[in-house]
Amino acid sequence: MKSVAVAVAVAVALAVAVAGVARADTGSAVLVQPPLEAGAPEVSAAASPSVVRLGAQLTLFVTVTFDPGVEVNLREPVELGPAFEVRTRDSRDRDGPNGKRVREYQLAVFAWEVGDLQLPPVAVTFTLAGHAGQVATNAVPVRVESMLGAVQDDPRPRADEPPAELTARDWFWLAVASGVGGLVLAGGGGLVWARRRRAPIQLAPARQLARRLDLPGERALALLLAIERSGVLDREDTRKAGYAQMVAAIRAYVGARYRVATADLTSAELVRALAPVAPVTERLHVEAWLERCDVVKYGGLRATTAEGRSVLGAARTLVVETTATEAPAAAPAEVAA
Q1: Chain-centroid distance, C-alpha 155
Q2: Are residues 176 and 83 in contact, defined by beta-carbon separation less than 8 angstroms?
Q3: Dist. CA 19–CA 39, nearest whole Å
Q4: Which residue has the higher pLDDT, 18 or 40?
Q5: Residues 329, 192 contacting (CB under 8 angstroms)
Q6: Were both Cys, which of 12, 40, 257, 265 would link to 269 (CB 3.0–4.6 Å)?
Q7: Helix axes 236-258 and 267-274, enclosed angle (nearest 10)
């Protein structure tokens, strides 16, 4: 249909030119200017792959075929709606058929919603003879699958069920017996210790197994403990905010630990910033932990209480394994009376 419209526009332009030549015979000149539609570029869009996981990257290809002398570009910013995020883009030019030029844009797009979706049309602007116009590509269908595959919970409410009888064991007498036994053992142990207590015993220096953390590590662990005690990870309506608090604590720790600015960086940019300053194992540890949080913060994944506590425990492990430590001082020898 676009080629037919262009052919009609060219025919109209030729008719106007002929009319101008006819009027030139009478001594008056007519300025002939082709219509803007005659120079409109041909555009198309495609995506690869067309089936991706939630939070994964796909590439959107926008192909523009235009005549020499026509300036083309993508309208900024490229907005694809709340379900998609455009992070980077690149373009390459090549010669096309019939003396035309072809420019291919490649946009790195990340999907943040699940289901059968469509990448909306992308606006392409062009300039011809001092006049500007705009055309749009076709919409591109894609399918975004959840992290758990195609398994989805049934949204329909369950039918009412009659009350079920619950049984529980009575541990009262077992607790009483255990208490009495403990008292007997404690009394017997006290008698034995009193009889054998004769001379002081020289004890060997004790070894402290706990590691002394540096100040950034201590602050991070204190923040994680406050998050755990606040209970935000135990309630569904505040669990996402709890993930955001954990990410903020770990970002602050990573910034202080490796001396990098983290405030305005995405997770991918932060990992790249750690490449020259952090060991490979520590950088991979930080990247894996941030990915577990991003699918909840940005991907819409609903985490359970157990998953939230697991991520919190992983954050503590990250701090302990990557923090700077200093050897504890040797404990003095003790003499037991």
Answers
A1: 26
A2: no
A3: 21
A4: 40
A5: no
A6: 265
A7: 20
Q: Strands 115-119, 71-74: parallel, antiparallel or unpaired by DSSP?
A: unpaired
Using left for φ > 0, alpha for ψ between -120 and 50, and beta otherwise, residue 259 falls in: left
Pairing of strands 101-111, 84-95: antiparallel
pTM above 0.70, yes or no: no
Question: Which tokens go with 323?
Answer: 């923090």
**Total residues belonging to the chain:** 337
Q: Which helix (H) or strand (E) holds 155?
A: none
Q: What pLDDT does 35 receive? A: 60
Count CB atoms within 10 A of the CB of residue 20.
14
Dist CA 217 CA 132 (whole Å): 57
40, 4, 3, 33: which is closest to 16 by C-alpha? 33
What digits encode the pLDDT tens for the residues 106-157? 999 999 999 999 999 999 999 888 888 889 999 999 999 986 554 455 667 7
